[in-house]
Amino acid sequence: MSEPYTLPLIDPRATLGTVGGKGASLACLSNAGLPVPGGFHITTATYREVVAENGLQPRIMAAVEQAGARSPAALETAAETIGRWFERASLPPMIADGITQAYTALDPVGVNLAVAVRSSATAEDLPELSFAGQQETYLNIRGQQVLMAAVKKCWASLWTARAIAYRLQHGIDQEAVALAVVVQVLVPAEAAGVMFTANPVNGQRDEVVINAAWGLGEAIVGGLVTPDTLTLEKASGRMLSRETADKHIMTVRDESGTVEQPVPEARRRAPVLDDGQAAELARLAVQIERLYRMPMDIEWALAEGKFAILQARPITTLPQCKAPLPTEWPLPGKGPFSRGSIVDFLPDPVSPLFATLGRDRYNAGEERLMEWFIGDKHARMTWLDIINGYAYISVSLSLGAWLRILLAIPRMLQTVRTVKSHWRNEAVPRYTETVARWKARQLLEVPAGDLLDGAHEVYDAAINHLTTLQAGLLGGAGGAEALLKAVYGRLIRRSGDPDPGALVRGYDSAPIYAEKALYDLAQWLSSQAELADYARRCPTQQLAAELSRPEAPAGVDAAVWRELQTRWEAHLERYGAMIYTLDFSQPLPLDEPVPLLETLKLYASGALASPYDRQQRLAEQREAALQSIMERVKGLKRWLFAKVLSWAQTFAPLREDSIAFIGYGYPQLRRMLKELGRRLVQAGAIERPEDVFWLTESEVEEAVAALDRSEPLVARLVAIRQRQAEWRAQKRLSPPPTLPPTKRFFVGKMNMGGLQPGSNDAQAADLLKGFAASPGRVTAPACVLRGPEDFGQMQPGHVLVAEITTPAWTPLFAMAAAVVTDVGGPLSHGSIVAREYGIPAVMGTGVATRRIRSGQTITVDGSAGTVTC
After folding, report:
1. CATH, domain range 757-868
2. The whole model's pTM is what?
């Protein structure tokens, strides 16, 4: 059976595909009993039939392709041409008759009933995109001939310049779109406006905000009038605030459509709605939000004391909702708890999925490590707990556990001696084999339960790799550096000799390889004149988007562009998994490559020095210093120094290689979890695939079981929004370095105070103290970066100030004059890389990102471990 050309407004066949987004929404509202004006749909089948009968599709596609996405003037010309084609298009008799009959049914007495003619596109009003204003609406349309002309104008509005450009920007297939038209009885509005079921200013989800003006709503939608603004409590309809505007203009009907005219003086400053009317509107808003299960943007009208709902669409952008800040830090046990050790890789509040699945499986890995080391899996060496969203480690060792650790020292030393071979020949192959096995699977074909089991397997492989590092490599690296510092400082070093860090600089490691590979790509880029000029002029965010598209930008050779894409994709494939954080919910450089592109452009412009030259200079300084030392040191001292130095030089780059490899499986892990998220979106449980990270492990397990049994799922939309608001509130906290708060951190009888970050109350107003991580003294402007989204703010010669740095931050060290962090110690990634780059660093200040402002001139003394503000 062929598709109908018209449908009643409430017809069950009124779906997104048949009547477009606006039409489907109006049908949904009407069927739910909401006060929607009566009318009918002119379906997408009608549009396609008219386009086919008049041979318009090939001409439209040719005009759009010829205009291109980057030429606004050409798009406008194409849109005007397409508009004339629709204006001259003939309507097949069956279509014209169907529209006439539907209009006549609305107007049985034949008085040329006034109607509103609204465009409704198939890609319109989707939850993830807002197409508001992309197509046209025509009001006060009277008579059959005028109606037919308005319908053609609606069809043509699918191809306005802004609609074409919008679809191109969001990757929507131009050939697949179609347009339906909704024809409704025009509400003779005395007043009209819009309302939001969440506060669009502050993001509060428990408020309804109403904008109201006199006349039809077009004056508000078009921005011609400042409306009254009313804010109500959603649950009760109680008025929270009222702002009555001076309303100069109103939209009213006239013989040919609508016109703007001055508001009568007596009504300009009068409130449009009283409290009772506003509360009635708020009740309709709550009903609509419950129907759609998401915040909504709603158009309404008031006529003869009754409200009508004209349109409802999802709100696609809301500001961050500020949840109340937690005031207490409830402890999950006796403690003590510290923001050190593995927490170096968890600077921010963690996602609910990491706080459950991630934490529990990390702790299981720690249990396996301790059982292998000392035969006691309950000895909590670095146990991960979550307090107010932040990760803390607790170390709880009984006297018996300490004794077993002492007895295990020979095994530990043997592990340290063989860790390099064990890591490369056993740990890495196990990790890569697990990831490769799941990369070979077609995830779309894997049952949900198996997919979750696979995510567990990949994450467990990452944790097993991490515990291998903890078992010997990280401790070996720390021990080697500490021993070198002690032997060199007490037995070898003389006045004028370099710092110990200079003796292990100039070696390759994974982050250094990544930096040099980026530099090599930049050199190739700069050799392509047209391409280099385009990259220099193009905003980095836009360049990242362009690189994901097959076509070359205007003015760039297609072959050269494909070569850049090939090289760039290869770079991301090899180095894009270096984590910003251990929390797998956070994007990787592979997912958000803009920070890397910023550095690439700086290298290509010559603003940054060659990493090869820097490495060679450091290596030459190292060898010159060692030659001078070895010439004067003899006997046992020489042997001991050479032994310790060899150990430190082996472990320093190996440590960075192993840390950079932690995230090797994260791209696949994220793909698997987001595939589960995609299925949950289809089942109506969440809004976006990424929302799976805002569920707990038990909620994911429950949803997965329901998916595999084809059972209905529980919608988690409200819970997810609340958790996101709580996360944003937690992000504003300054987590204490230890809990219970203390200036010293004890494990049993051992003082671990030298391993914790600084606390807020321990810092003076103008002098921050931290770990002396890399020597030297620099005075320069600060650049405070909260995360990778801020990388573009970094300027060469500025001090990099961050909560923590991980291997993915390494490109910024090439620009930095010095480094200061909230979290981290002498053996953290930032310390190691700062020493490798030969720049001062102070780690673990606790409060640097909150005390220092971008642009503020500060002095970093990496030898004393101080920052003067």
Report:
1. 3.50.30.10
2. 0.61
